[in-house]
Design brief:
The protein has about 180 residues and is α+β, with helices and mostly antiparallel strands. It is built from three helices and four strands.
Length: about 180
């Protein structure tokens, strides 16, 4: 028969955990200053925001570059026989005698037809300096987008104007050759 619960011996109790004595407060010593440490996540999240903005801007750069490549491909279809420029700005003392003019041009640069920013210095015997549009600062490339329609129209006009001129000169030359063979 089982023994009654009262008669069973109980399990020994664990010894009590000693308590730390209460800290004594010394009024002459100031309490320690808590330093606020920013977790690295704060810096990373700012970095991620900046990187996201930078990546978005890089995508915009690619779109601008692709747009100018398409524009050059379009103008190359014209086979225009000479350089074409449209005025963007005149700089100088007054509008009647500018010292420098800025053009958007379709010119031969490095053996290839390129869309360029062309700077003409009036005081330097009309010397011109061409810079491929892709090498220009972003603000220049953006501003020149507004002038591309004028450049396209001028390239088209120049190309159409040359067709009768070439046909006329070639027919006169052929007639001259016929007369010489005569």
């Amino acid at each position: 028969m089982p023994e009654p619960e009262e008669s069973r011996p109980s399990a020994p109790k664990p010894p009590p955990v000693p308590r730390r004595p209460a800290a004594t407060v010394n009024p002459s010593v100031p309490p320690p200053v808590r330093q606020i440490v920013r977790p690295p996540m704060v810096r990373l999240s700012r970095g991620k925001v900046l990187a996201a903005a930078g990546n978005e801007l890089l995508e915009c750069y690619k779109e601008i570059a692709e747009a100018w490549v398409k524009a050059e491909q379009l103008l190359s279809l014209s086979h225009v026989p000479k350089e074409v420029r449209v005025l963007v700005h005149d700089f100088g003392h007054n509008e009647e005698s500018p010292e420098e003019s800025i053009y958007l041009g379709y010119v031969r640069l490095g053996g290839q037809w390129r869309i360029c920013e062309v700077t003409v210095e009036i005081d330097c015997q009309n010397e011109s300096y061409e810079r491929a549009i892709e090498d220009c600062p972003l603000d220049v490339r953006l501003e020149m987008l507004d002038h591309f329609d004028k450049l396209y129209a001028e390239v088209l006009k120049t190309t159409k104007d040359y067709v009768p001129k070439v046909k006329d000169r070639v027919s006169k030359f052929l007639a001259s050759l016929e007369a010489l063979n005569g």
